[in-house]
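Long-time lurker, first post. I've been practising inverse folding by hand and with some scripts of my own, and I keep getting stuck on stretches where the structure tokens seem ambiguous. Below is the full token string for one chain I'm working on. Before anyone asks, I'm not after the true native sequence, just a reasonable design that respects the backbone. If someone could post their per-position residues I'd love to compare against what I wrote down in my notebook.
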């Protein structure tokens, strides 16, 4: 087992193997950033409960397993039938498929992409030294990155690259489908997405993470999103990893003047899950909206960490995160809103609501405001509770069974987030998935009693 210092040594050994496989590529600017990131990961190590940002989330189970980074594409790891399970046949979308973090051109569909829009796998883009994508990835390779983002950068090889030019509106959504294959040994997938929205452009992204197996694996994903002046990005993320998987995901957003970023994050799968979103509103009149829904059952742990940094005046942010926890599931929410000294006229609202369906389910919630400007309108709050007995009684008095009454009220609680999802086929799929999860959670709750 890879424990203590040995887990760092394990990843260092695999990094050395990656470096040897690059041949001439080991002298590039990209690999220089990889080496810096590997050193940062080695210096920091995996986070522990002593780290303030991780004090409610124990990642010790991740550190105890020697996950082998997947360094090359495997054409036999998944097929068209696997992709169809997680695609939207009725949606004329652009779809990029990645298996274990590597692009599968044979399973992808780019036919609906316009001529001016660049939609590609990141691996082929960053192979060119002078490419703007490489500049964007390596310019701030270490700035503010935590240990797990550094680990992603160390093994950066592939992911999605999207560049929408000035004034272009993409009429169909882009679906980024990340599948974990059926490998028998524990493996690490390190996908990286780079999305550049040009001035006054508009694009919709759907990001799906799913497992084809119940085997143990670790997805460590990072997305960098830059919105130029007047750009609009709608971003839906669905995480339905296998019940034994670990999923760490980080999204870093930079917003310029008059830009609008809206995200809906839905977490249904995984054993240990951490979603981190960091948005910096760098210029005036930017708007950021973050919504999230976590459904936890059994012994799942789902941690949502958000940071919205109001670095300029006249910007607004809206945040609503909800959790539904059953069995012995544990939820974590830590939302921070920073309002810088010069960020006058800031309008920020943050809300976290949790519904506990069992006596053993728990939530640690910590909404935070740090305000250094005086002309602002900022609110935050958190509520934790169980189903309303009067509402349950009302439904039962009209002939609804106890389990159905509980499901109706729980779904009503969760649907506030689901109806915000931008893509209709995804929204409809989520409705069915949540109904199924509520039933599964009830059964698992009974099993743990």
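-- Answer (accepted) --
I ran through it position by position. Result:
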């Amino acid at each position: 087992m890879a424990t203590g210092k040995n887990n760092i040594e394990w990843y260092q050994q695999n990094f050395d193997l990656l470096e040897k496989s690059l041949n001439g590529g080991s002298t590039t600017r990209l690999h220089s950033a990889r080496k810096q990131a590997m050193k940062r990961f080695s210096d920091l190590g995996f986070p522990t409960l002593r780290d303030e940002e991780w004090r409610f989330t124990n990642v010790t189970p991740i550190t105890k397993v020697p996950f082998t980074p997947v360094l090359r594409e495997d054409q036999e790891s998944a097929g068209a039938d696997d992709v169809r399970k997680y695609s939207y046949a009725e949606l004329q979308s652009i779809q990029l498929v990645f298996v274990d973090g590597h692009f599968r051109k044979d399973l992808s569909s780019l036919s609906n992409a316009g001529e001016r829009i660049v939609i590609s796998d990141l691996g082929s883009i960053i192979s060119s030294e002078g490419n703007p994508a490489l500049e964007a990835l390596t310019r701030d390779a270490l700035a503010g990155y935590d240990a797990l983002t550094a680990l992603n950068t160390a093994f950066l090889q592939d992911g999605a690259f999207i560049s929408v030019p000035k004034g272009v509106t993409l009429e169909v959504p882009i679906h980024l489908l990340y599948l974990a294959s059926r490998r028998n040994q524990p493996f690490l997938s390190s996908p990286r997405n780079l999305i550049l929205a040009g001035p006054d452009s508009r694009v919709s992204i759907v990001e799906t993470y799913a497992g084809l197996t119940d085997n143990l694996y670790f997805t460590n994903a990072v997305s960098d999103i830059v919105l130029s002046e007047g750009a609009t990005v709608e971003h839906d993320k669905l995480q339905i990893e296998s019940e034994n998987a670990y999923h760490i995901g980080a999204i870093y957003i930079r917003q310029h003047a008059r830009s609008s970023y809206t995200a809906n994050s839905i977490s249904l799968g995984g054993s240990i899950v951490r979603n981190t979103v960091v948005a910096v509103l760098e210029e005036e009149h930017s708007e950021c909206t973050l919504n999230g829904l976590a459904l936890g059952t059994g012994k799942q742990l789902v941690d949502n960490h958000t940071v919205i940094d109001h670095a300029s005046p006249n910007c607004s942010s809206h945040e609503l995160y909800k959790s539904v926890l059953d069995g012995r599931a544990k939820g974590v929410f830590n939302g921070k809103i920073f309002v810088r000294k010069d960020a006058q006229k800031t309008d920020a609202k943050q809300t976290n609501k949790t519904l506990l369906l069992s006596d053993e389910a728990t939530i640690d919630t910590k909404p935070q405001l740090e305000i250094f400007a005086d002309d602002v309108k900022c609110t935050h709050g958190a509520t934790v509770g169980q189903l309303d007995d009067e509402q349950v009684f009302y439904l039962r008095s009209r002939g609804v069974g106890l389990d159905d009454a509980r499901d109706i009220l729980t779904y009503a609680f969760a649907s506030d987030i689901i109806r915000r999802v931008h893509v209709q086929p995804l929204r409809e799929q989520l409705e069915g998935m949540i109904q199924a999860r509520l039933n599964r959670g009830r059964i698992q709750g009974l099993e743990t009693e």
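A couple of notes from the structure itself: Residues 411 and 434 are 7 Å apart (CA to CA). Confidence is low (pLDDT under 50) at residues 445-449. Happy to go over any region you disagree with.
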